[in-house]
């Protein structure tokens, strides 16, 4: 498939880094890139755009993305968004709208619960990922059979985390035809299956390293893969790096 503005971002997360290594889940890297762009966007000039402020006032942010926004340099932007968002929450949930407002606690409870269910960044990231994964499947399907390039690149990945494994496995059934689907699922299952087997062995080795007969072995250079196995397991199972 000819490289284009759509395929370049996909290739970038699947290809080796500057050190020639392929590390981590490519879909996590894809998501992280989109998240970073969205956070930088809304903390910049977009913060003053009426349509953006309307959306942030309506959707708010989840805990994860509040933390990401806090990492940005412009806290004033975040403060201004929070100010208008809190004002909206007060008006929507706590403002007295009549004599009967106190008699409808269920409606107030429902609105309060909805606050943690929506996030402006999540909505934009989901939209971006949906479009990027469509290109991913087109690249896999259209990969030349005589000179395959993308399929071997997928097979060479270190791993795909469990959340993204489940996500793309589900998407594959509607994105790929009957002849391509089994090929893709086989590649995917083998990649993730092999990694979890290796990870399981490493965690088992980590647990065994606490036996007095193995004292000191865990801290050798050769045991780095065992030493990091707990953090790597959490990353694999959750799709998020341990910070």
Any key phrases for this structure?
243 residues; mainly alpha; globular
Q: How would you describe this protein?
A:
By secondary structure, the protein is mainly alpha-helical. It has helices spanning 8-14, 26-42, 50-59, 63-70, 75-94, 105-114, 120-142, 150-155, 162-175, 181-208, 224-227, 229-238. The model has no long low-confidence stretch (mean pLDDT 87).
Set out the fold topology:
Elements: H1 8-14, H2 26-42, H3 50-59, H4 63-70, H5 75-94, H6 105-114, H7 120-142, H8 150-155, H9 162-175, H10 181-208, H11 224-227, H12 229-238
Helix pairs in contact: 1-2, 2-7, 3-5, 7-9, 9-10, 10-12
Question: How does the major sheet shape up?
Answer: none
Output the structural class.
Answer: mainly alpha
* Spatial shape: globular
How many individual helices?
A: 12
Give the strand tally: 0
Structure described in brief:
Helix content is 65%, strand content 0%. With 243 residues, it is mostly helical.
